[in-house]
Amino acid sequence: MLLNGVRSSVTGGQRGGSRGIAGAENPREGNEDSGSAVTRCEVLGERTMPVSLRESVGQVSDPRNLDASVEEVFRLMLGLECKRVMGAAVMDAESVTAVVGFGGVLSGACLFKSGAGTAMKIAAHMTGMEFSAVDDTVKDGIGEICNMLAGAWKGKVPELAANTGLSVPAVITGHDYKLHVQAPEFQIHHIYRFDDQVFEVTIVCDGLQ
Amino acid sequence: MSEIRALIVDDSSVMRKIIERSLRQAGLDALVVHEAGSGVEGLEVLKSNQVDLILSDINMPAMDGLEFLRQIRAQNLAVDAPVVMITTESSEEHVKQAIEAGAKGYIRKPFTAEQVKERVLPLLHAA
Fold first, then answer.
1. Strand partners, A134
2. To the nearest whole number, what is the mean pLDDT of chain A?
3. Chain B residues touching chain A at CB-CB below 8 Å
4. Which of A69, B18, B25, B117 is close enough to A152 for a disulfide, judged by CB 3.0 to 4.6 Å?
């Protein structure tokens, strides 16, 4: 899945459906069966030595990288201590999802999802303003949070940082909608909490070159 | 420090406000800020305004930050204004490309106001 670089919002969706992203209930974290991808070459003398991403795929899919990225972004940009929690996230019926696509040696996306109230609280921490609705500023702020999460996550692995690009964020708002992603190489889906607010962050990888 | 005229280029209006707030927290109270949401808009601002400092994102629609930087130099705009990239891109290759295009500083998102202070103020003093 390679997302086009658009910053947009879409309202609507199904009512009564289950929350979250299809397949998120059974994430294949840390999956190392991700193919024999070759990502770059190093020239040794006159020979070209391929370096396989398999050597670092365990690092790429290490769930601790996502935790560290989330904690870093929330601490530095919002001044909030944010921790991973286990279990299901209970969210407002109205929710906000931001998506930033990856392209290059890894294709996929970083997804952020929270209830509307949590999104407004995050935007309030970012801007110093108060919000009573998910307006353009809230959507912009959540898109930027997702952008920084995606950048921080790929920055944990040098091969990804150098050879994977990011799309600009797309932001989706609505009630009880589902997001579907196709057969990822691996998927990391975590729930985090700050104060009494929860949100989900998902990394989906559907291709490694 | 006397009045500083800064151009902040980022497709996120929230991020532009955060960068402006960080500059003020760094002690730049007499700050006049111009904003642009892309490199194209940034070039238009520079054609009609003098600035002392430019802070630019890299990943933006219409024209990215690296091309914006190259166009500034190609069109002889804001020749004395130091450019600092503020971006989620953190690889050595991106830093190298930014420096080659003429950037004087590089700040990775997420960032703190202290990092902005440490990397921007010396450039203004040098200028």
1. none
2. 77
3. 11-15, 17-18, 21, 59-61, 87-94, 108-112
4. A69
